[in-house]
Amino acid sequence: MRRLFGSVRARATLGATVVVAIALVAAGTAVLLSLWSNLSGQAGTQAERTARAVATQLSGGAGYDRLSLDNDDQPVQIVDGSKRLVAASKDLERISGTGTDAVRVQPAQPGRGDDDDDDGDDDALRTGAIGEEVDFSDGSATIDGDTADYRFAAVEVSVRDKGTLTVYAGAPLAAEQSAVRTALTVMLIGLPLLLVVVAGVTWLVTRRALRPVEGIRREMAAITASEDLARRVPVPDAHDEVARLARTTNETLAALEASVERQRRFVADASHELRSPIASLRTQLEVGAAHPGLLDVGGAVEDTVRLQRLAADLLLLARLDAGEGPGEARFDLGALVREETAQRTGVTVTAESVEVAGSRGQLARVLANLLDNAHRHARSRVAVTLRAEDGWAVLGVADDGAGVPPDERERIFERFVRLDDARSRDDGGAGLGLAIARDVALRHGGTLTVREAPEGGALFELRLPVP
User: Fold this and answer.
1) Domain end: 226, 260, 287, which one?
2) Which of 32, 247, 282, 306 is most buried when burial is the number of CB atoms within 10 A of its CB?
3) Of 383, 385, 387, 382, which is closest to residue 356 (Cα–Cα)?
């Protein structure tokens, strides 16, 4: 059971069926109540009409024995002010729901006269008035052995010499009850059939709607099993949520494929970069172990420093890729620029005091990488400027070297990219400095771009938001 209702299709079908069932039950109940109210109102109108007809006869002076009370399906009672039955239908055997359950005329109390003889002259003298208000009630009656439910109407009439009389007249509810039972039967038969139709249609519609989702699921399962990130899920020929899901899934797969490929290249390039200094250091140590006098201590130290820097770069890139935040510390970027350039020769500095927020250590690394890159390509001079401009701290590092070709100005920020393939690895870096600098700039909410410097070389411009 849990597995059955674990599917979206089953839950959608069950939910739609339950909602429709609740709506149909509520609507059916309202229809039955309205039908019963209307039909019982009609029966009440019929009972009122009969009661007023009898009351009219009483108000006209007719005696009890001259009243038209012998309707086969309409019981009538007449009760005086002391709740005594003074007249009733001839074949009435039992009654309930009226002012009294008596069915036989009760004798008058001593000292009271009804004056209901057959003297026409006396009857003609009697006049009365019929009340406007009508009281309704439900009950039952047995007439000539047949018991049925009735709607009773009570009408008061004032008659001279008789006082205030109440006429109870009933109208049968058999037709109304039959109509309600018929409607209920139709609903009880039609409701399950309609629910079956709703469930079937919902099942088919959801199956058709979710078929593309199942195709996406199967393809994702195949991609997971094969580890082939070049595959893509099928996109339905539609403009609905499922099609958007498929397109988003393919975009995610493309991003994941690019990330994995970038990670593979990163590992391969890192291994390649580490192999050269390690091999050089091993060779020097082996020569030194066999011939201590031939040990190149300076070269070994240089290779060790290069390994240390490369390991630090790789560690920083790993931390940046892991989402390490820059922090919210505030410091003077101008003071950092003057501090980093103090020990370097051939550098001119024009730096204002501009406060920025972030990691002082990471931004110092950016500045050092930009300065190392500028020194590596400059002919004679490197210029560093820092100014505040429209809410930004703008740091520029320019050299008077050959510059960067326009079509290579984005590629140089990729990892392990070096444009000068002819230079030796000892003279150049590993191709990580500019990549680290841009990643740090982006983490700080800024940008790092390169363009042509006024002196003809390269101008690297770092923009950081001023808090």
Assistant:
1) 226
2) 306
3) 387
Looking at the fold, whether 203 and 135 belong to one and the same domain comes out as yes
Sign of CA dihedral 281, 282, 285, 290: negative
Same domain? For 347 and 286 the reply is no
Q: Give, rounded to a whole angstrom, the gap between the first and last alpha carbons of the chain.
A: 59
Classify burial at 332, counting beta carbons within 10 Å of its beta carbon; exposed 0-12, middle 13-18, buried 19 or more: middle
What is the pLDDT confidence band of residue 121, given thresholds at 50, 70 and 90? very low
Answer yes or no: do 211 and 265 share one domain.
Answer: no
CA 39 to chain centre: 46
Using left for φ > 0, alpha for ψ between -120 and 50, and beta otherwise, residue 60 falls in alpha
- Which distant-in-sequence residues (6+ apart) come within 8 Å of 115 by Cβ? 122, 126, 161, 162
Q: Give CA–CA dist 414/417, Å, rounded.
A: 6
251 and 271, same structural domain? Answer: yes
Q: What is the dihedral of CA 229, 234, 240, 242, to 10 degrees?
A: -60
> Maximum distance among all alpha carbons in the chain?
163
User: Which residues span the domain enclosing 310?
Assistant: 241-321
**What is the domain-level CATH number for residue 248?**
1.10.287.130
Is 169 within 8 Å of 176 (Cβ atoms)? Answer: no
**Which H or E element spans position 465?**
strand 458-465
pLDDT, tens only, 82-116: 888 888 888 888 989 887 888 888 776 554 444 44
Do 276 and 368 fall into the same domain?
Answer: no
pLDDT higher than 60, residue 126 = no
* Total count of domains within the chain: 3
441 and 461 fall within a common domain: yes
Residue 234 covered by a domain: no
In degrees, rounded to 5, the angle at the alpha carbon of residue 152 between the alpha carbons of residues 146 and 153 is 150
For the cut 50, the answer to whether the pLDDT of residue 119 exceeds it is no
Query: Order of strands, edge to edge, in the sheet holding 92-96?
Result: 85-88, 76-79, 163-172, 146-159, 128-143, 92-96
Question: Within this chain, do residues 246 and 207 fall inside the same structural domain, yes or no?
Answer: no
- On whether the CB atoms of residues 439 and 319 are closer than 8 A, the answer is no
User: Rounded distance, CA 129 to CA 190, Å?
Assistant: 52
pTM beyond 0.70: no
Tally: H helices and E strands in the chain: 8, 13
Residue pair 151/38 in contact by the 8 Å Cβ criterion: no
